[in-house]
Write a structure and sequence with these properties.
OB fold (Dihydrolipoamide Acetyltransferase, E2P), about 100 residues, two-stranded antiparallel ribbon, mainly beta, 5-stranded mixed beta barrel, about 45% strand
């Protein structure tokens, strides 16, 4: 799993039939401090994430193992919305908190 921040939506008016009805989101990969590392990925949203939220996503063959993406041609899927994280007992992010965006 990887940590990322939802940057926005990707709209594709024409796509493979198996992708119809799936929401595509642009993710900015994030480090343990929550800062963006420069990498981006487009992922299928399986959990209803919104712009500005931190999420966990899987890529590769693992991306095709959710209910929403099973047997579909996807390489990345959002499978969790992050509420908080800490490192060595120090809280680094809390959704909706003073440091959180969501």
């Amino acid at each position: 799993m990887n940590l990322a921040k939802v940057l926005g939506r990707v709209v594709a008016s024409r796509k493979e039939e198996a992708l119809e009805g799936l929401t595509l989101l642009m993710l900015g990969q994030a480090g343990p401090d929550g800062k963006l590392t420069g990498g981006t990925v487009v992922a299928v949203d399986a959990v209803g994430a919104g712009e500005g939220e931190y999420v966990l996503y899987a890529s590769g063959s693992s991306a095709r193992q959710t209910t929403a993406t099973q047997n579909k041609p996807v390489d990345a899927v959002i499978m969790a919305i992050v509420d908080s994280w800490d490192i060595e007992g120090e809280e680094r992010y809390r959704k909706g908190g003073p440091e959180g965006d969501g």
